[in-house]
Amino acid sequence: MECKCFDPQWPADELLMKTVAIVMTTAKVFTAAVSCITALMLVHIIPDLLSVKTRELFLKNKAAELDREMGLIRTQEETGRHVRMLTHEIRSTLDRHTILKTTLIELGRTLTLEECALWMPRRTGLELQLSYSLRQQNPVGYTVPIHLLVINQVFGTSRAVKISPNSPVARLRPLAGKYIPGEVVAIRVPLLHLSNFRINDWPELSTKRYALMVLMLPSDSASQWHVHELELIAVVANQVAVALSHAAILEESMRARDLLMEQNVALDLATREAETAIRARNDFLAVMNHEMRTPMHATIALSALLQETELTPEQRLMVETIMKSSNLLATLINDVLDLSRLEDGSLQLDIGSFNLRSVLNEVMCLIKPAASVKKLHVVLNLTEDLPEHAVGDEKRLMQIILNVVGNGVKFSMEGSILVIASVAKAEFLRDTRSPEFFTVRGDNDFYLRVQVKDSGSGISPQDIPKLFTKFAQNQSLTLKSTGGSGLGLAICKRFVNLMDGHIWIESEGQSAANRVQNSFPGLKVLLVDDNSVSRAVTRGLLLHLGCEVTTVSSREECLHVVSQDHRVVIMEVCVSGVDSYDIAVQIHGRFTKLHERPLIVALTRNTDKLTKENCMRVGMDGVIVKPVSIDKMRTVLSDLLEHRVLF
């Protein structure tokens, strides 16, 4: 029998279940709605969230960047502190050895280096030598070629360069055991231009010369070079260069000061000695002036009185001889005194106004008695433009003219003496053949030109330069009867120079009656001729005239031998083996100054116009046409030496 149970509460549970389902569905709907609302809200919130996240990341990066900048600032401050410290230590002395040694010590301490060394260029400039080392007291014997690739790389930049620890300049210590070498950098140290200084064993350096500094970190360590350390090294290298230049200047200045002090001491000593000598000479001249003039005055005066008495011809001749000798000695005393005062600069011109024409006439009055004894005719010609009065030293002007005219009388055996006084014209002052004159100071100033022409035997050209030298005479013409000390013209020249003027001599050479066989004694002639016979003949003519002859036979010999001592070069033209035209051109090129160049004369058989033109074109001074006699050679040399040209 089947039994069924009946639960009277079942409908209530079902109702509850339905209610719960409804509630849950409603909750889900609300949840979905909230989710939708949330999703809709997130659409607007997510960009803001992303913006916040981006800002957070930016701030983090900024903070990191600021940390780096602060670290860099701290590093720069540290670097600056080290640089200031190093600069102070380096510049605390101006001794170059102390500068370099201090640099290595301070860099080693600051950067904790295992080794720091400096390679300096040797005198040859081809090698670098290890001169200073942090760990080695006396590094010697280490050299490397300057043209190594690693050295060129370092010298090519102003920055510190990392180099291999195995490079030649980095092998500063012997290898011992197995270890990892530390990083090595090298930098150039400029050796500034020292054109005016030479520091003991250092060569003269330029801005393109460098020393090499090598720095090594400790071995078997993880240390590496940082940027700020490399910058520190570059700054220190520049500071070392500046300090070395200052040290060089100081050393040279001290050396120059010591040398100047030595020169000043020597100059002071020489000055005192010169002043002592001048005082002694002046004292001697004062004594000489007094002690010698007094007896000379007595001798001349008594001789003059003795001439007035009755004397035998023989006695009168002796008295006249005494008078002449006394006058000559008195003149010599005056000349010596004047010359001494001229040379020490104590003689000053006595400037004043005087009658110029009267002075010239007075000179003639003094000269005519001596000229009349020799039956010489003396003529004075004063031009119309010559002023009556002038301002100058009347006494010295008279002394100059009297001396020059007196020489004309002394060396003239017959004929006349002509004295012409005029105002020098402007065209004369511009004449290239006359000496250069000083510029006339004003409109009222003028140059007085006095010409003295005599009919004496003349002066050979080689003797003219000697006439204005002290104690020099024309030995070939001076006769025993003329006498003289050789001081007159030398003193005249100094007086004329003191008056801003010039004095010179022009001579036509000795006359035929007074020529001697050796007309050109000591004249050095270079003869170029490749023909031995012709060369011997020409040499014989020149030797007969007293010349000193040097003979050569080729162009090479001529150019090797020719010098300033040769006054004349005579060369054969149009001969085989001797290119005379080329020789002349090369001689002109060698002697650029006219007074140093020998006179060049061509010796030729050709009389055509082309030869003469070719000689003139290459700068020859004349042509001698063969055959040549003694008289012809004498005339040629005389004209050549006087006029410096034969064309």
Describe the fold and architecture.
The chain is elongated. α1 packs antiparallel against α2 (96-111), α1 (10-91) runs parallel beside α4 (227-307) and α2 (96-111) packs antiparallel against α4. 50% of the residues lie in helices and 14% in strands. The protein is α/β, with parallel strands linked by helices and 647 residues long. The longest helix has 82 residues, at 10-91. β12 (524-528), α10 (532-544) and β13 form a beta-alpha-beta unit. The protein starts with 9 loop residues before the first helix and ends with a helix. The chain has 14 helices and 16 strands. The strands form four sheets. It has a six-stranded antiparallel sheet, sandwiched between helices. Strands 13-12-14-15-16 form a five-stranded parallel sheet, with helices on both faces. It has a three-stranded mixed sheet with strand order 8-10-11, with helices on one face.
